[in-house]
Each structure stands twice: as structure tokens, then as C-alpha cells.
Amino acid sequence: MFLYLEEILISTIHTLSLEAFAFFASFVEEVVAPIPSPTVMVVLGSFAAVQERTLYALVPLVLIGACGKTLGALVVYAIASKSEDFVINKFGRFFNVTQNDVDLLGSKLGNGFKDYVLLTIFRALPFVPSVLLSVGAGLLKIPLRVFVVSTFIGTIFRDSFYLYAGYIGLEALMILIEQSSQVETYIEISVALVVLIGIFVLYMRARRQTGVQE
Fold first, then answer.
1. Which of 66, 100, 126, 180 has the greatest number of beta carbons closer than 10 A?
2. How high is the pLDDT of residue 199?
3. Is the pLDDT of residue 204 over 60?
4. Alpha-carbon dihedral sign for residues 189, 191, 192, 198
5. Which of the 8 DSSP states describes residue 14?
6. Can you tell me the distance from the alpha carbon of 24 to that of 16, in angstroms, rounded to the nearest whole number?
């Protein structure tokens, strides 16, 4: 299913300008997590080379793509932030975590220059799933300014690598990108499995506690 969505997304490059594709596809790729993050920028770089765009002409594409991805990340951040209350109220007691604990941690993570740098580095790393960063930031309610700045700058570094790789088309870089995409997918699947197992364990524990009380 997601492979089909990826194919549809990539096919829009034939009807949109490269600038429009950079924004639209980056937004969708961020919101629809299973779509591999390198795909959009690698394809964009390849088409830029075919159209004989200069190396300097890649800069606007990177910036436009970073804007689209940041907007998509904000959507994920907002959804995670809204669901945080439900998650804490439902499962927080099993981990002895309260709403105040989460709010305090989130406020501590967004008050220093090192936090900007750290979140930017995580966002720039090719093998770190960006959607997990957006969800984590939303759940912890990291200040919006920190999230937006680190997402935008980190995405510029990350997308520049992918875009340039697609532009020059070196086989060695393509292999590296494919491997990083696989690692990213494995991380997403692993985290999803851990979350599902955790929810199941907590559910069974709650049922046992209910049975004891009765």
C-alpha cells in the first residue's frame, strides 16, 4: 500500500515544477511516515540534473523542501501533542509518570543552545527517522520555537546530501542512501513493535489488577 503511495507521490514530479514538487512531496513524505525519506530528494536531484539545473539552483530546492518538511513535521508534532494527555492519563500510572513530569522534562529540553544543536544534529542524521523526532517532541511538548528551528536547519543538511546524491548520481552514494533508508525503516518498525508490545503488556497488567481488586 505504502509503496503504491510512494509511486503516486513520485509521479507528481511529471506534472509539477521542481519547486512545487519539493514542497508538496516533502510535506507528504513527512506526514506519511512509511514513505522513505531519501526518495523525494534523490528523485528531485535526478530531475534537476536532467533539466541541466546548475549546482547553485539546488539551493532554492533544498530550502523549499525544508519548508514543506517542517510544515509536515508540525502536523505530526501537533497530533502527538494533542494525544499526549490521553497517553499520560491512560498509561502514565504504570510508569509512575505524571503530566507535571512530562511538562517539566519538555521545558528543560528547550531552554538552551545545546538543545537546539542536539535536536538539529538528530534531524540531520540520515538514518534517524524524522517522524519519531516529531512525535517525541510533541509528546514531550518541546517548545515550538526549538522544534521549528531545529527541524528546518537539520532538514537542510539532510536534504542537501540526498539532493546532491541524486544530482550527481554516484553509484556509491546511491548504495549508501539505500542502506540508510533501510536502517531508518528498521528503526521505525522496531519502535512500532516495542510500542505495541508495551501497550499489550500494560493492558494485561491492568486486567490482572482489576481482577485482583474484584
1. 66
2. 46
3. no
4. positive
5. G
6. 9
**CB-CB contact of 133 with 119 (8 Å):** yes
pLDDT band at 96 (very low <50, low <70, confident <90, very high): low
Q: How many CB atoms lie within 10 A of CB 39?
A: 18
Q: Which of 48, 51, 44 is nearest to 9 (CA)?
A: 44
Buried b (16+ CB within 10 A) or exposed e, 162-185: bbbbbbeeeeebeeebeebbeebb
Domains of the chain by residue range: 2-213
Mean pLDDT of 160-166: 86
Q: Cα angle at 154 between 137 and 196, to 5 degrees?
A: 35
pLDDT in tens, 127-149: 777 888 888 888 778 888 889 99
Distance CA 99, CA 68 (A): 31
